[in-house]
Each structure stands twice: as C-alpha cells, then as structure tokens.
Amino acid sequence: MSKIDDTRKGDTSNEQLFTLKKWNAVAVWSWDVECDTCAICRVQVMDACLRCQADNKQDGCVVVWGECNHSFHNCCMSLWVEQNNRCPLCQKEWVIQGTGK
Amino acid sequence: MITLKKKLQEAEAKKGNNSLGPQSIDRRATIRDKLLTKEIAEIGDHLNSNCQVDFENPDKIYEFTVIIKPDEGWWKGGVFRFSVFVSEDYNIQPPLVKCITRLWHPNISLDGNVCLSILRDHSLDGSGWAPTRSIKDVIWGLYSLFIDLVDFDDPLNIEAADEYKRNPKQFKQSVDTYLYRYAKQ
Ligand SMILES: [Zn+2]
Ligand SMILES: [Zn+2]
Ligand SMILES: [Zn+2]
C-alpha cells in the first residue's frame, strides 16, 4: 500500500496551501473566528454549511467543536463520523466538546 | 492543462442555465459539483507537463482523466491514464480511480485497480481518505506512485513485486515491455 506523507510536498504552491491549513487550525481559538473555515465543506463555520445553504435551512446549522479544539459544521461532521469517528484534521478520536451558533 | 480554465468556465455557464430550469437536480450532486468546481480551479494553475487533467465533457466535471507522464523513475517515458469518477457522496467518500493504461507496477493491478492509501474510504491510521483532502492530493498521489510512493512490500500485483525482489533488472525489462506496448506517447 502506498501512503502519502503530508509533510513531503514538492512545489511551493503546495507548501503555501499547507501552511494556510495549519494556520486555520491554530486560529480556531483566536477571537477572529469569522476567518475559520470548515475543513469539510470549505465554508466559514459562522455561515451555514454548503448543504444547508442548498436546502435554504440556514437557521438550523450549528458549529460543533471537539476535544481536540477543531471545529466544523455539525451537519458536515455528523456525515463524516458515520464513516470514521476521527477528526479529519488531527486524526484524534472525535469527542464532542460543544455545539453552538 | 491549457484548456482546463475554459472548460470550467463552460461548466459554470451551463450550471447557470440549469438553475433557471426545474429544481430537479439531485442535491448531493450539486454539493459535489460545488466542491469540485472550487478544487479544480485551485489545481488548474499547478498542473505541469508531468500531470494533466482532461475533462472530456464539461457537463460532467465529476468524470475526468488524469494523465501522468513520469520524467524519472522506473516508468520514465510512459504515459499513464487514470479515469476518475467522483460520486455524489464526495467529499465524505473518496473519488473512484481506475488505471486505464496497462502497466507493470507493484501497486497497480493489470486490470487497473490502484492501491493508494488516500483512495481508501476507511483507515485506522489516518492515511486514508478524509474530507480535508482534495482532487489535488489525488493527482499528487497518483504521480507519486511512479516516483517515491512505489511500495514493493505491500503489493497489489504480487508477481511484479516478487520479480523485483528476485531480479530488479528483469523487473525493469517487464516494465519496459508493457511501457512500449501500452504506454508510449
Ligand atoms: Zn461544513
Ligand atoms: Zn448545515
Ligand atoms: Zn482535531
């Protein structure tokens, strides 16, 4: 089986993208929450997720954050944990710390 | 690829037309297409002569061909094509990838199955698919299969891996035989 090592990336454009992701992860607990993006649907967590936007159900879409301090849309994360109960950003077991708007 | 941007624009224009019609488009397909449009725009500028993407049909951005032309390693000089299908469950589920060029490779079977960890929908060690990954990572992974991700210890084509372990020269000959027959430019 061939595995990808995320730390080994070739060109600089890739490096930039990866740096950005790390920065996002760190930014979760800064006050600048508006800049934080859901890594699953790639929409800001303060906005409704891609699916809720498509369904026009913006109001019911909440943010969920785990004990690992990563946050996502609750809708997005509940789809993912059905398949793999790990945080897709840090691979730790997903334990919900809280939900909210 | 040079034509990628144009195709994307065409796809976008088509979508605009569709949204005026009856709202019969499957919702999951819409989500998938939205994610893909973003991802493809992102990879467009990073493709080079070793990795290309061909969208045969701009209406179906979820079906495309990745063309890998390694310029180093065992398969140097070959042109290898992979068909990619992105299901409605993207990006919770990984894209489905088949190799449509016959080749002699420990991690790609002769009938086109590809053994690449990020294409697996489930893994315990975090090397499998995750929605944080994107089409760019898939293309990068496929390219790396010819360079530094070649894995002789956990093969899909066991015969190819065994041949390499027995006799690397003979393995190279088999690689070349397939390459000249099926993968020449
Ligand atoms: Zn989301
Ligand atoms: Zn939602
Ligand atoms: Zn996490």
Provide a descriptive summary of the structure in words.
The complex is a heterodimer of chains A (101) and B (185). Helix content of chain A is 32%, strand content 12%. Chain A has 101 residues and is α+β, with helices and mostly antiparallel strands. Chain A has a domain at 50-99: Zinc/RING finger domain, C3HC4 (zinc finger) (Herpes Virus-1). A 3-stranded antiparallel sheet of chain A has the order 2-1-3. The longest helix of chain A has 16 residues, at 12-27. The radius of gyration of chain A is 14 Å and the shape is globular. The longest helix of chain B has 18 residues, at 27-44. Chain B is built from 5 helices and 4 strands, in the order ααββββααα. Chain B starts with a helix and ends with a helix. The radius of gyration of chain B is 18 Å and the shape is globular. Residues 17-24 of chain B have low confidence and may be disordered. Chain B has a single domain (49-182), classed as Ubiquitin Conjugating Enzyme, CATH 3.10.110. In chain B, α1 (4-20) runs antiparallel to α2 (27-44) and α4 crosses α5 (168-182). Chain B is of the alpha+beta class and 185 residues long. Helix content of chain B is 37%, strand content 11%. The chains are: A alpha+beta (101), B alpha+beta (185). Chains A and B meet through α1, α2 and α3 of A and α2 and α3 of B. Bound molecules: zinc ion (3 copies).
